[in-house]
Amino acid sequence: MSVDGLTKMTKIEVVVPGENVPAVREQFRSAGATGFTSVSGVSGLGHNGYHQGRLLFNQQSALELLISVVPEAKSAALIVGLRRLLDESPGVMFVTDTYVSRPEYFG
Q: What's the rounded Cα separation, in Å, for the pair 32 and 71?
């Protein structure tokens, strides 16, 4: 399905503590994601109160936002894997439909 020449994909955003970032990256890779964006030091107010974006002692102490876009056919397996990970550790996942101009980048 296209909107004004764009291709529909699935965007998955995950906020986790620094120590869980490698596991999220591995989920992205194993699901066939061709890339991701990572933003460290994120802050905000949530379920467990306010989280500051600054580092406390090391990189592991900060929250990180990881974002990946995958074709819809790859999204179900990725979502299942991330839900399993988040069942056992702190974090939150957001899943949205998105549209991209260069679908070949997300192969």
A: 9
Q: And the tokens for 42?
A: 């994120």
Strands (E) across the chain are located at 2-3, 6-17, 37-42, 44-46, 49-51, 63-70, 92-100
Q: Which pair of tokens denotes residue 95?
A: 């899943």
R_g of the chain, CA atoms, integer Å: 15
- pLDDT tens by residue, the chain, 107 residues: 557 899 999 999 999 998 999 999 999 999 999 999 999 888 877 777 776 666 555 555 688 999 999 999 999 999 999 999 999 998 999 999 999 999 999 87
